[in-house]
Design brief:
The protein has 730 residues and is α+β, with helices and mostly antiparallel strands. It folds into five domains: 40-233, no CATH class; 239-409, Alpha-Beta Complex (endopeptidase fold (from Nostoc punctiforme)), CATH 3.90.1720.30; 416-525, Roll (SH3 type barrels), CATH 2.30.30; 534-594; 602-729, no CATH class. Strand 9 (279-283) and strand 10 form a beta hairpin. Pfam families: Peptidase_C97. Residues 239-382 form the PPPDE domain. This is PPPDE domain-containing protein. Residues 25-44 have a biased composition (Polar residues).
Length: 730
């Protein structure tokens, strides 16, 4: 069958010329090599199902990709493929690569074919933009779009987000993708997959939009790639990204001798935050979004303009919640290894596609970490700069649960680490080292434990050309790209993520609500963990074993469980939180059924033990309270209580409280000294109420004391709901 060619003609023997008669200089970079092959002609089904015919004309980048699809991917020559067709195509490439792989090649066993099926399923859903919902196929235009983004998008995250925009736009404008392709192909006069600025106006006009006044040339060379062009056509607006730098020494660092700072001379001891979308984002033991005039470090010493971004605030917040939070949370702050400047660098890389903050800011901890001055000050700096996750002292005027309180991204319903603790050989998961990387679908083939961490050996399928721009050059040499089986060892478990249906081809955390409604993940969480549980205080700090009677001049706080003096010869202490557990309580709690009181997940046996022991129930409830109260207000509102409810239900595999039941319990337990406003009610409506002295109007919230009772009630209800289910199963 004749094959589809590109949408325009160009004299292959002449230099690229502008339709306006202006010669175009060639780009120093190229997404694809210039393709000036012999002409072809085509007749095939377009994505709307109608036959289309093109004259015999030279092929450009998009035309060559169409030809590759029709000659190699689409065996039936219909211009579309099903998921089964796509699997057969990838399997044939994997088998061919296996035959040529030599002595170390892997045979495609049943386990590998199961893994390949999952790889193809996710890849197919990534390509599918919903243009062919009637036959559940992907068309040639969708495949070409995918290939062009693989070659031009600055990261996998950027590719995922632009496809999300396109999926929203296509139902209202089904011809949008074809129009983008036509406009791009018409304006790509050099055949490199890049648009020279002389042709931007033509390209945007052909696509049916006005040329934006602030077209972003991400590389600064006067060329626009397919990713940037598509972003602008979809209406993405540019926003300024700035780095706010605060000198914590207030000028004193300039006078410190270089010998005391590892041989480096510093202009300041820098704290930094990223300014974008009218807010400032920074890390201080928690991820915070603050007004620019409401930062606890005063006015910035410098504000550097780093560039322009096509991202949106919604994309940034999603990135913070689902990606950055994994490494930047209330327990991870360290002034030398994971501080505010490392966080700023992550955000800048996301917003500006790989750009980094100035070396003076980013490398300062590395340069100074070996000095005795920094080693001495490190604990104090961690307590000060990493304490905002506990106190949120950014806004002196902000009241608890006030909208003006800086927004903190943290969650009690994140069960990703608990899921990792229960991974076993044979599990299929996602592997991703950095947030910008494409996650690979992998199978765990071995797990190894060292003294400090667990690592995995994984196996996965990988194309021989990891960047898809290799396809045209392979075609020119008569070759095809292939898939190979790859093994990788010593993979840290924190690089593994659950294979979520809703992850949109990305890697995301495992939320309690999803674990509750999925037997697949719920089953993993019910496994016995391989790792032993570390005794910890309610804030998660390690409890240190202390032996011997305390000195006569030392005041030992009472046991945090039983309340009695902890003056025994063996006790466990957290100096940071002033928490002490006596030896008797520690032994009793460690021997509880269900893994002991320090288990990372509750099960019915442990829940019953807690309900029978008021001291340990209070201890465990405080741990949930502090984790849910991530912005340190001292209060749990209804959304936070709902997340606690979902977390407990997911852990116990029980039915969560309904919204009405949750609201009823919160009304019953709300502190009596507060007059509770119903959700959505205005304070003015109750202005005629005479409040007793010491009372105040607040939204429906629980303090720590009332939350402890809520925690016990939620456990009791969950266990009561489990009993009928167990009898029904028997």
């Amino acid at each position: 069958a004749a094959r589809r060619a590109p949408m325009r003609s160009r004299d292959p023997g002449s230099p690229a010329a502008s339709p306006l008669g202006i010669p175009a200089s060639r780009s120093s970079r190229s997404i694809f090599p210039t393709l000036l092959e012999s002409p072809t002609s085509s007749t095939c089904d377009s994505d709307d199902g109608k036959p289309s015919s093109r004259a015999a004309i030279p092929e450009g980048v998009l035309g060559r990709l169409r030809t590759y699809f029709l000659e190699n991917v689409d065996a039936g020559g219909k211009g579309r493929v099903s998921q089964r067709d796509f699997f057969n195509h990838i399997r044939s490439l994997a088998e061919e690569g296996n035959l040529q792989g030599g002595e170390g090649a892997e045979q495609l066993t049943r386990e590998l074919l199961e893994l390949l099926g999952e790889v193809v399923r996710r890849r197919f859903s990534e390509i599918d933009l919903g243009l062919r919902r009637d036959d559940h196929c992907v068309g040639v235009d969708e495949w070409v779009h995918f290939m062009m983004l693989r070659a031009s998008a600055p990261s996998h995250v950027a590719m995922k987000l632009i496809n999300r925009q396109l999926r929203k736009a296509l139902p209202l404008n089904p011809g949008l993708l074809a129009r983008i392709h036509y406009a791009f192909e018409e304006a790509d006069v050099e055949g490199t997959g890049l648009l020279h600025h002389d042709y931007w106006q033509q390209a945007f006009s052909t696509a049916g939009v006005c040329q934006p006044s602030d077209v972003i040339d991400l590389n600064g060379d006067g060329y626009l790639d397919y990713y940037g062009f598509t972003c602008h056509v979809l209406g993405s607006e540019s926003h300024t990204v700035e780095l706010a730098m605060y000198d914590l020494s207030q000028g004193a660092a300039k006078w410190v001798p270089a010998a005391l700072l590892g041989g480096h001379k510093f202009d300041g001891i820098w704290h930094s935050g990223v300014r974008a979308f009218g807010k400032e984002y920074w890390f201080g033991g928690a991820i915070l979004e603050s007004s620019m005039d409401d930062i606890p470090f005063g006015q910035p010493t410098r504000v550097l303009q780093l560039g322009m971004t096509l991202r949106t605030r919604e994309e940034l917040l999603e990135f913070l919640r689902n990606d950055v939070y994994i490494d930047y949370n209330p327990n991870s702050y360290d002034v030398l290894r994971r501080n505010c400047n490392h966080f700023s660098n992550e955000l800048v890389q996301f917003l500006l596609h790989g750009k980094q903050i100035p070396e003076e800011v980013l490398m300062q901890p590395e340069w100074a970490k070996t000095t005795s001055l920094v080693r001495v000050m490190r604990p104090a700096l961690n307590h000060w700069l990493g304490g905002f996750g506990d106190e949120v002292a950014c806004s002196p005027t902000a009241s608890p649960c006030s909208p003006t309180t800086p927004r903190v991204v943290s969650r009690i319903d994140d069960m990703t680490q608990e899921w990792r603790n229960r991974l076993q050989v044979g599990d299929i998961v996602l592997h991703r080292s950095r947030f910008v990387d494409r996650p690979w679908v992998v199978r765990i083939v071995n797990l190894t434990r060292t003294r400090s961490r667990r690592t995995a050996e994984i196996v996965f399928f990988r194309p021989t050309g990891t960047r898809w721009e290799d396809v045209p050059s392979m075609l020119s040499s008569g070759d095809q790209w292939r898939w190979e089986v790859v093994r990788q060892s010593e993979v840290p478990l924190h690089d593994l993520f659950p294979l979520l249906e809703e992850a949109d081809a990305g890697a995301q955390i495992l939320k309690a609500g999803l674990a509750l409604n999925s037997d697949r993940f719920g089953g993993v969480l019910q496994r016995h963990p391989e790792a032993s549980f570390r005794p910890a205080c309610p804030k998660g700090h390690k409890l240190q074993l202390l032996r011997g009677a305390p000195s006569w001049f030392c005041t030992v706080p009472p046991c945090s469980v039983c309340g009695h003096p902890a003056a025994s010869n063996e006790r466990y202490s957290c100096p940071r939180c002033n928490v002490v557990v006596c030896g008797a309580c520690f032994t009793r709690g460690s021997n509880f059924a269900g893994g002991g009181v320090f288990a990372d997940i509750l099960n019915p046996e442990l829940a019953r033990e807690l309900l029978a022991d008021a001291g340990w129930l209070r201890y465990r409830a405080r741990a949930y309270f502090l984790k849910a109260d991530h912005n340190g207000t001292g209060l749990i509102d209804k959304p936070k209580a709902r997340r606690v409810n979902e977390r407990l239900a997911a852990e116990l595999r029980a039915k969560p409280l309904s919204d009405s039941e949750l609201l009823r319990e919160m009304h019953r337990l709300a502190p009596s000294r507060w007059i509770v406003l119903e959700p959505g009610a205005r304070g003015e409506a109750n202005s005629d109420l005479r409040m007793p002295k010491g009372h105040r109007k607040v939204p429906l919230v629980l303090d720590e004391e009332s939350f402890e009772e809520f925690f016990g009630t939620a456990l009791s209800i969950a266990l009561d709901n489990l009993e009928p289910d167990c009898r029904h199963e028997r």
